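Write out this protein's structure.
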Amino acid sequence: MSGISEYIDSEVKGNDVVLFMKGTPGFPQCGFSGQVVQILDYLGVDYKGVNVLTSNELRQGIKDYSSWPTIPQLYVKGEFVGGCDIVREMFQAGELQPFLEEKGVSAKGAA
């Protein structure tokens, strides 16, 4: 495993919810990353944002790690969930919150 793969692996396995994104949760730098941040924030999920714009190696590394070509990428309990479209579809279908709860991740949901 290369250094970048090890870093990604430790982030994915060391945090319950990790979003590899362009920008940061407080300042997303692409619309798709921003949409996932909005959904996670709306559900009150505690997550870590990893900014892939900090290095080309990281940006390419996460795509290789998941065999998924686009960013953002959401991981829950070490499992790749998907990108913006999948997260948005799960959210709109009311499946995201039960999925998170099943994994033992607390989501406050819409109050």
